[in-house]
Specification:
single chain; alpha/beta; six-stranded mixed sheet; 3 helices
Amino acid sequence: MPRGIVLYYSRSGNTKEMAEVIAGAMNGAGLNTECKLVDKVNPDDLPEYDAIVIGSPCYYGQMAAPIKQLIDDLVGRHGQLNGKVGGAFASSANVGGGSETTIVGILQAMLIAGMVIQGDPQGSHYGPLS
C-alpha cells in the first residue's frame, strides 16, 4: 500500500498547522500519510515512502536549518528517492517574506534527488505558503 510523509520544522506552530492540514488532505485522498517533526525523521526511512512533502518556515528567504540538515543528510543516499513524488510548503511573517524562494530551494533538492514534482497552473505554482 502506498505511503506518504509530511515532515516539517516549526518554531511558532504555523508550519506545524500547515503540515497537519496537508497530511489530513493526503489521508483523506486515500494515501496513508504520517506527519512528523523533522527531528523525529530518520533519513534512512525516507526511501520507504512513495510521497514526501517537506515544510519549513522561511528565514531570510531560505529553509530552516533543521530542514537543510535533513537535505544535506540525503546526499549519502543519492538515488534512493528517484521516482518518489515530492512537494513543499513554507510559512513566513508576511506575503512577500520569501516563502516562494524557500519552497524552490526544497524542490530543487528534490529534483536533484530524482523526485517527481507536480506544479499547479491555477494558483500556488510552487506549493502552499502562508
